[in-house]
Fold this sequence. Notes:
Blueprint: H1 2-23, H2 29-42, H3 56-75, H4 78-93, H5 102-124
Helix pairs in contact: 1-2, 1-3, 1-4, 2-3, 2-5
Amino acid sequence: MDRLIAWAQALKRDVMILWFALKHPQTPWYARVLATIVTAYALSPIDLIPDFIPILGYLDDLILVPIGVWLLLRMVPEQVLADSRALAQNWFLEQQRKPRSWTGLAIVVAVWGLAAWVALSWFLG
Length: 125
């Protein structure tokens, strides 16, 4: 259980590092695009697949977000990561609240709205 807690804390730290890397001027555009998607989703107040759905509810948290973080940590230049790590460390030392991504919320709501529209269209006809 301690390993799982440590892994979750490391993932939280890495998401914050990427959040700062997203704003860094030396981050390449392609990494910035992926970082926007990953951090918007990771910091969204709601999940694409709600956690109360058995097995699938945690799939995004256990697979999708870590894969995105892993890819980004390899795409972002080392100097950007070093700068972003320092900013994230200060962020956590000051015990600031985790930022919320309203863009991520909008994306999740749009996907659910589109799915509902498709299901309703298929059902009605």
